[in-house]
Amino acid sequence: MPTIERVTPGNYPLFDAMVCWRDTGTERPPSRAPVSPAVRRELANPNLFVYAALAQGRYVGWISLVYLPKVGKWNGRGHIHVDELWVAPSYRRRGIAKALMAKADELREECGAAGIRLYVGAQNPAAQKLYAACGYRTGEAAYFMEKTR
To answer: Rounded distance, CA 27 to CA 17, Å?
Structure first.
């Protein structure tokens, strides 16, 4: 089973190589270029948590989590939001995604959060099955809306 570790500026080049692998389907060695100030700033955000699965000297999956504080009826107890979860195709069905999702549970406990929320594509039954196996249930139907530049 891979080791799950938090992504930091020190291991970011390995993480960035994995993201390139996901986006292009082609693996490349980690960059030797310095980590940009923008990436350092984002990784220092106290509400952002990025974890990666390390296997055979490379990252093969990751989860990006955000703690969103809440006030009002939530009594200052926010929610953890799963922003992204990905595992390399050749490493799927080995428990890596469940191990990454377990980090969300650990973070919920650490933050004292009220719960964990995520969105899953209606056309992604494999992910729906994974989340159900992790104890998630379908909530109220919603539309995903986005505004970009």
So the answer is: 7
Residue ranges of alpha helices (H) inside the chain are 12-24, 37-43, 96-111, 125-133
Tokens of residue 21, six digits? 């692998």
Vertex 45: Cα angle to 27 and 81 (nearest 5): 75
Q: How far is CA 86 from the centre of its chain?
A: 7
- The 10s digit of each residue's pLDDT in 95-145 is 999 999 999 999 999 999 999 998 888 888 888 888 888 888 888 888 778
**Cα–Cα distance for residue pair 144/45, rounded to 1 Å:** 25
Residue 42: CB atoms within 10 A of its CB come to 11
Q: What are the backbone angles phi and psi of residue 43, rounded to the nearest 5°?
A: -65, -25
pTM for this predicted structure: 0.88
Q: Is 135 helix (H, G, I), strand (E, B) or coil?
A: coil
Query: d(Cα 60, Cα 91) in Å, to the nearest integer?
Result: 7
Closest-CA residue to 120 (of 141, 103, 90): 141
Please state the φ and ψ torsions of residue 3, each to the nearest 5 degrees.
-85, 135
